[in-house]
Amino acid sequence: MKLLGQKSASTIISYLFLVLFIILFVHSVYQLFGFGIGYYNWTTSHHLFSETFYVNDEIDYASYEKGKYVFFRFKYPFSDQHMLTGFFTLNTFIFHTFQNIFFCLFFLYGFKTFKDLSEKELFNETIIKHLKTFTVITLLYAPLYFLIWIFIFRTGLESSMLMTTFAFLFLGIILHFITVFFKKGLQLQTESDLTI
Q1: Where are the beta strands (DSSP E) in 31-184?
Q2: Residues 6 or more apart from 70 whose CB is under 8 A from it?
Q3: What pLDDT, in 10s, does the model give residues 122-140?
Q4: Nearest 10 degrees: Cα torsion 102, 103, 104, 110
Q5: Exposed e or buried b per residue across 178-187, where buried means at least 16 C-beta atoms within 10 angstroms of its C-beta
Q6: Per residue in 129-144, is it b (16+ CB within 10 Å) or e — as a string?
Q7: How far apart are CA 97 and CA 90, in angstroms?
Q8: pLDDT tens-digit series, residues 29-60
Q9: What's the CA gap between 194 and 126, in Å, rounded?
Q10: Which residue has the higher pLDDT, 82 or 68?
Q11: How far is CA 101 from CA 6, 35, 73, 89, in A?
Q12: What is the predicted pLDDT for the residue at 67?
């Protein structure tokens, strides 16, 4: 199977990115809905979908005092499978929303980039535009992720945080080199077309 062009590996990968984007987008909307319902239930003492979107100060962790923290547990619809669990705070909401927005954009631009690689004309303005956006999204994630952990959660440096930051920074640098390569390819292709 060929890597680039129509009916190639890049076409299959683009569809994989699209499926992941759709799944994560639906997951993100459902999670936002859960935070909204949870907040509504907690502030008004209602019990709307309380089995699915549980918010209470009765924490089932032995090391935490009852009444001191607000705890949440969201389940996937029509199941007992837990989707998300933690402390019901603004910081938690900001962090999960940030993660969801980033990964939705990441998979969306991954889809667009690999879809462009499936086109007949490999070097074009569209793929360069999508690669630039993909690069910026990836490069911005690394410092934002780092800052969120340090300033919002007020934690020290952790190895998992450093590894995630380094991985996305490294990926962003590679994407930048690929973007420059495609720019150069488009320039050479344009010069060749003008010569002919």
Answers
A1: 53-56, 71-75, 82-87
A2: 42, 55, 56, 57, 87, 88, 89
A3: 778 888 898 999 999 999 9
A4: 110
A5: ebeebbeebe
A6: ebbbbbbbbbbebbee
A7: 10
A8: 999 999 999 888 888 877 888 888 888 766 55
A9: 20
A10: 82
A11: 30, 15, 21, 18
A12: 56
Strand order across the beta sheet in which 82-87 lies: 53-56, 71-75, 82-87
Residue 76 in contact with residue 83, Cβ under 8 Å? yes
Cα separation, 38 vs 81, in Å, equals 17
CA angle 141, 106, 155 (to 5 degrees): 30
| Bridge partners of residue 54, in order along the sequence | 73
Structure-derived torsion over alpha carbons of residues 146, 16, 122, 131, reported in degrees to the nearest 10: -20
Quote the distance between the C-alpha of residue 109 and its chain's center: 11
Q: Is the dihedral of CA 3, 25, 160, 85 positive or negative?
A: negative
Encoded tokens for 157: 């440096």
The pTM for the full model equals 0.82
Angle between helices 9-44 and 90-117 (to 10 degrees): 160
